[in-house]
């Protein structure tokens, strides 16, 4: 009996959310301009990519929450005297953005991002931390009701390695589609 009551409440809640447009699911992809910050070593930025899924949960006329799951490639390069040394780090990232809507077109996005290292392509010997925590800020522009453009800056708050004082620093430009 409890299962039937729970299932009924879940169906009613989902249909109410769908009718009131409180939940929007989307996909997004874009370019990363990534580098390391906080280090004495002068590194050069690399261009990479990110892609993933987003959900926007409307909590009022001017506020919503947007959890996401993305794959993001970050890192940097360094010109040694004899060769270029690169570090490409592949993360699954979970940003949780608070969106403050400034009209129907633009929103200010702020929140934390938790990332887990999935892959690394590093030209030097170091122990890369598996977890990365960052603060994220940016803007979203709704081009149409279904298409959006986002610009973000991801500021790493944890060091990428126990052996280095470097943190991830990423500028992101995304294009997305809401279903």
Automatic annotation (TrEMBL):
<dbReference type="InterPro" id="IPR011250">
    <property type="entry name" value="OMP/PagP_B-barrel"/>
</dbReference>
<dbReference type="Pfam" id="PF13568">
    <property type="entry name" value="OMP_b-brl_2"/>
</dbReference>
<dbReference type="InterPro" id="IPR025665">
    <property type="entry name" value="Beta-barrel_OMP_2"/>
</dbReference>
<feature type="signal peptide">
    <location>
        <begin position="1"/>
        <end position="20"/>
    </location>
</feature>
<feature type="domain" description="Outer membrane protein beta-barrel">
    <location>
        <begin position="19"/>
        <end position="160"/>
    </location>
</feature>
<keyword id="KW-0732">Signal</keyword>
<protein>
    <submittedName>
        <fullName>PorT family protein</fullName>
    </submittedName>
</protein>
């Amino acid at each position: 009996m409890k299962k039937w009551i729970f299932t009924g409440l879940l169906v009613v809640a989902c249909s109410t959310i769908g009718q009131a447009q409180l939940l929007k699911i989307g996909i997004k992809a874009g370019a990363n301009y990534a580098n390391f910050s906080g280090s004495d070593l002068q590194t050069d930025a690399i261009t990479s990519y990110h892609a993933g899924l987003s959900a926007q949960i409307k909590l009022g006329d001017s506020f919503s929450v947007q959890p996401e799951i993305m794959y993001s490639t970050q890192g940097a390069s360094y010109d040694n005297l004899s060769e270029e040394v690169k570090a490409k780090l592949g993360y699954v990232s979970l940003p949780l953005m608070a969106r403050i809507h400034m009209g129907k077109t633009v929103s200010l996005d702020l929140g934390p991002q938790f990332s887990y290292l999935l892959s690394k392509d590093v030209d030097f010997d170091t122990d890369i931390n598996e977890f990365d925590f960052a603060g994220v800020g940016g803007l979203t522009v709704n081009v149409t009701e279904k298409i959006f453009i986002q610009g973000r800056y991801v500021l790493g708050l944890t060091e990428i390695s126990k052996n280095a004082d470097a943190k991830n620093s990423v500028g992101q430009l995304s294009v997305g589609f809401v279903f």
